[in-house]
Queue: 2 jobs
Job 1
Amino acid sequence: MPQSYFSLFNLEPRFALPGEQLDAAYRQLAAQVHPDRFANAAPAEQRKALSLATSANEAYRTLKRPLLRAQHLLGLRGVDVLDGGARISQEFLLEQMDWRETLSDARAARNAKGLRQLGDLVRRRAAGLLQQLEAHLDANDDNCAAAQAVQQLMFVEKLLFDIDEAHGLLEA
Amino acid sequence: MALLSIAEPGQSHSPHHHRLAIGIDLGTTNSAVAAVRDGSATVLADEDGMRLLPSVVQYFADGRIDVGHEAKRNQAADPFNTLSSVKRLLGRGLADLAEPQSRAYRLLEAGGMVKLDTIAGARSPVEVSAEILKVLRVRAEASLGGELVGAVITVPAYFDDAQRHATKDAARLAGLNVLRLLNEPTAAAVAYGLERAGEGVFAVYDLGGGTFDISILRLSRGVFEVLAVNGDSALGGDDFDHAVYEWIVAQANVTAPSPSDQRLLLQQARRAKECLSSQHEADIFARLSGGAPVNLELARATLDQLTAKLVARTMAPVRKALRDAELTVADITGVVLVGGATRMPSIRRAVAEYFQRDPLTDIDPDEAVALGAAIQANALAGNRSAAGDWLLLDVIPLSLGLETMGGLTERIIPRNSTLPVARAQDFTTFKDGQTAMSIHVVQGERERVADCRSLARFELRGIPPLVAGAARIRVTFQVDADGLLSVSAREQSTGVEAQVTVKPSYGLTDTEIATMLHDSHTHAELDARLRSLHEQVVEAERLLESIDSALKADDGSWLNDAERASLEGAMASLRDTLKDGDADRIRVAAEALNQISAPFAARRMDSAVGKAFAGRRLTDFA
C-alpha cells in the first residue's frame, strides 16, 4: 500500500481539492519540518528533518498538479494507470494526431495566432477531462473510467507543454 | 534548540544569550558582511568605516597577503599576483573559461580545477575566496566582540552544484561554520520583504559583477516561496567593463597592450562606466607603460550602444523564469534591483520597460544581499526575529540528470523543484553476472550530456551477480537545503547496499580541505589542533544542550526508563571526555550519543508534529 500524501497533510483523499487548502496545509507542515528549523540541531535530527521536508515537498508537488493527484489517488486505490488496463479510444488518438499536425504546421509557419487558438482548444479539453475526473473519482467511484481520463489527460498535458514551448521559441 | 523549536519555531534555546551569526555576500567585485544587532540588520564596516570589501587579493613573495582596497589599487602595478573577479573561476575547469578577462592571469589546470599561478605559488579560486572570507570573519569577530556560531554565505541562484561546493569549501577554509548557502536574490528579497513587509509576487533582477540572476518569489504570510529562477552565471558588470575596454583599445589605437596596461585600461573603463550612471559624459585618461597617453571622452549614449546586446541578453532568462513560474508580467507586484551593475540607467530603463513599472531601489543594491543573509543567519542561529516567524522555500536552479545511452541526458530532478528534494531512478544490469555499473551525473537543461556540466561519476560496486536485467538498482538523488547533491544506491531485490564512490569532478575532498587548513595554519597564528579541539568541544556542548532542553521540554515522555538510562549514560560519558580535552575521544563520545539519541529524535518529532496534525505518524513518510 503506497503512503498517502493526503494523510500527510491531514486532507480527505478526494480529487476535488481547493488550492488554498493544500497551500495552507503544506505551509503549516513545512514550517515545522524545514531544515532551517534544525540548523543547530544534532545531526540525527537534521537528517530526519531533511527527509521529512523532502516528503512534504514531494507530497505538495504531487497533490498540486491535478494529473499527479488523480494518479496518486488511483494508486491508493490499487490502480496503476501506467500498467495498462484502460484503453485509449481510436477517436481520441485521431484527434490527438490532428492536433499534433496543427501544432507542427503552426510552428513551421511561426504562426502565433494559430498556436494561441490551438492552445485554447486543448486547454478546454483539459478542463473537460478534469471535470470528468472529479465525477469519476469523487462521485461515482469509477476507477476504470478515471484511469482512462488520466491517460487522456497525459496526452493533452504533453501537447500543452509542447505548444507552450513553441510559443517560447517564437518569443525568443 | 531544535527539539524545542518544534514546539515554538524560532525560539532560542537560551533566551538570554544572543548567538552571533553573520551573513556574507561573497561578490565578484565587492564583498560585504552583515549581522543583526539590536533587532536590525546592519552591514559591518572596517576600521576606516568602509562597508564594502573589494574582492581583490594580492599575494607577495614573502607569504604576505593583502585583501581589499590596498590590493585593488595595486592591480595595474602587479597584475599577475593581484587577483580580482575570481568568483567567476569558482568550481570551473580551464575548458569552461572562454572569457577574455580571465586570460589576464596565468591559469593552470589542476585536477579538473583552474588554479592561478602567483608569486606565492599556485592558488585555487577556493583559496583566494577563502582569503576574502577570512578578512570578513575577522572584521565580524572584532565588531561583534565574540565567537561566531556560523555564517550564511550567499551564492548566485544560478550557481551549479560544483560552484556551490567550491563556495562552501572556501568558507570552511576560512574557518567559518556554514549555516546555509543562500541564493543572492532570495537574500535580497528577505531584506526587502522583512524590512518592508510587502506581500505578493516579486521579481528580483540581480546583475552583479560576474553573474546574472532573475528570481520570481511569492511572499505570503511569512513564507518566501521561490517560484522560479533563471540566469546566466557568466554575465555581469565585468562584461560591460570589457565592452568599454574594447572600445578604448580601438579608439586609442592601442596595439598589444601589456598585462599592466590591460588592467589599467580596464580600471579606467570601469570608472567611466560608473561615472556614467550619474553623468552624461566621462573622461578616460591613462598613461600606458610605453609613455603614450590615452585621452578619450565616453558619452552615456555610446556606452548604451556598446552594451545594448548585454542588456538584451538578460531578458531571455527573465522571460524563461516567468514562464516556469506560470506567470505573466501582470502578476508581478514589485521588481527589486540588486547588484552594483543595476545602477546603470540603461538597465533600469530596460527592466522598467519590460515589467511596466518602476523598480524598487530603496535598499542599497550593494548591501541588500548581505543584509538578507544576516537576517537568515540570525534566524538559523536560533535567535528570535523581530519580524516574527518566517520561512524560506528555495528551489534548485538547474535540472539534475544522468547520462544514458548515446550521450543523452535523462532528467531526474527538474529545475525549480522546491528544496529539499529527492528522486529515485531504477536501473538494471545488461550483462549476466554484472557486478558493477558506472553512472555519470550531470547538471543542465540541454539534451546532450556534452552540453551539460559533469558533476560526478559513480561506480556502483557489489551488485549481486544475477542474470541480465534481474538486478534492480535504485539510485536516489537527494538535494539538501543548500542546493547540494548527494547520491545513494541500493540493490532492491537482495537489499544489498551497493558501494558508491563519489568523485566530484570539481571541488575539494575533506582531506584536501584538512591539508589546506593545516598548511594555512602553519603560517598563521592559529594552531590547527587547538582549533579542532575547540570545534569538538563547541559541537559536543551543543549536542548536550539540545538533548537537555528536549528532555526538559516535555519531561522526556517519549522515553521509557531503560532508554532514558542509556541516553543519560551516553551524555555522562561525553561530559567526562570534555574534562580531559582530547579531541578524538570527544568526537567518539559525541558520535555515540548521536547514535543513541537518533531514534528518540524521530519519535519526538512525530509527537511534536502530531500535536498539530493529529492522528498521523510522520515517520511513515520518510
Job 2
Amino acid sequence: MKTIRSILAALVLGAVAVYSLAAAIPASAAACTTGKIGFGSTHLSSDATTITISSIPSTGSGGACTWSNFYVSGITRSTYTTTCDDPMYAQFNGDTSGSYNYVLTWFYGSSGSFQGYHATRSHVAQINCDTRPAGAATGFDIELVQHSNTTFNKQVVGSNNMGYNTNSPNYGTMAEWHGSTWVNTSAVTQIDLFLDHGQFKSGSDFVTFIE
Amino acid sequence: MTRMLIIVVAVLLSLATVAQVGARPTDAPPTETNCKAEAAASGKYEGVQQCTRFASGMEIVVHNKKPKFDNSGTSQSGARLP
C-alpha cells in the first residue's frame, strides 16, 4: 500500500512538471522559437543561369509553429565580361508581372549613389563580372521578412560586398544595400535568382536559413 | 487489481505527455536527396544541372531557364561603377 502511494505521489509530481514544460511550448500557429537555422544549400559544379528555391515552408514540422523569416546568403561571380558588374534579380512565387519596387544604394571610396525602380523583378544584389581579378566575387545576404505573413506585401532587404575595380591584387571594395517590396500578400514559397546578363560561375555557394 | 490498472493507465498517460512535450517544433537537419531526374521530368525547368531536396520538402534546383522579365518602366539616377 505504501509503495502504491509513493508511485501515485511521483505521478502527481511528474504531471505538474510536465504541465510546466508544456506551458513553454508555443501553441499551434505561434512563431517558431528555434532561432535561425541552416535550411539547405547548394554548390555550383558548373556555370548556371537560375537558382530556384521552391517549396519554402510557412510552418514547422506538422504545422506546430509558423516560420518568421527566410534568408538566402551566398558568394558568386558572373560570367559576364562586357561590363564590371551584373545585377542579380529575384522573382517570388513565379510572378513575372510588374509587382516589384526597389531601391539600392552603393558606396565606394568617398562616393556613392542610388537608384529606384518599378519592374518585373526585384534587384537583390550586384554581382562582380569576370573582368575583375581572379578570386574577386560578391558576397550577399537577402532576408525575406515574415515570408509566411499573408496580411502585408512582402518586404525584402539585402546587402552585398564586391570588388570595385580591376587593380590587382588590391581591387578595392564596394558595398551595396537593397530594399524591395513585392506587392503581394501571399506567403513566399518560391524564389528564382538569376542575373541580368551572365551566368552564376562554377564554384558559387548558396545557402538558406530560416527562423 | 483496480489500483494497479489505474497506475498503469496513469503511467501511460504521463509517458504520452512527455513524448508530446519532447517534440520540438522544428524541422530535422537538412537531409539531402538528389532530385535531378524528377526536376528534369517535371517540365518546369530547362537544362537541369543539380536538384537537392531537403527534409523540410524545400528544393534547390540549378538550371538554365531564365524567368521572363524586362527592364521597362524603370527610373534611374546616379553613376555606375567605373
